[in-house]
Amino acid sequence: MKIFIDTANIEEIKQAHDQGIIDGVTTNPSLVAQTGKSHKDLIRDICRLIKKPVSAEVLAVTEEEILEEARILAKIHPSVVVKVPLISEGLKAVKKLSEERIPTNVTLCFSPNQALLAAKAGATYVSVFMGRLDDVGHSGIDVTLQCHHILTQYGFKTQILGASVRHPYHIQTLAEGGVPVCTAPYKVLTQLIKHPLTDTGLEKFLADAKKSDI
Q1: Tell me: the pLDDT tens digits for 43-55?
Q2: Measured between alpha carbons, how far is 97 from 103 in angstroms, rounded to an integer?
Q3: Are 182 and 170 in contact (CB under 8 A)?
Q4: Which positions are annotated as active-site residues?
Q5: Is the dihedral of CA 87, 83, 181, 98 positive or negative?
């Protein structure tokens, strides 16, 4: 399973990259706003740091404007994947971007039907927002697995990307279900590393090592 980090924080990206645990980066306007940097400058900085897919989101909502923004973002670096909202105008743009060989990440997907349409339009990734589905009483995991099953069953190249990850169990369940990609905040990625038995085991090893030195 590919694991992306969902952040615009350069230091978090560097830490996760140095640990060897991430395969890409996803950002969004809210995350970028927290950095105080311009969108293009930040994406450029991230691409210089990590030579892996970096999702950068358009802010437009019409086909023509989405295409204009997408082409500008794609020119920043070959690693850029353009995030496009799952709306009618977005699907039109994704179809044309696919024809231009510009990779896309169709975002704000909440149903298998939406995922199917995004795949038919030629999306590289479709981001299913699991946590937000959980927030309104649906099972984000179930919906994501359903999306993955449909796309796999029909042989689409589009990859389902589990997004809005809230806790390690989300990632574990997606991995068990064969979902190819997920993206998670740095906080959740660090939780994957931690286990109380690891901590107590290490403490015991270190304590025993000190005794043997006496």
Answers
A1: 999 999 999 999 9
A2: 7
A3: yes
A4: 83
A5: positive
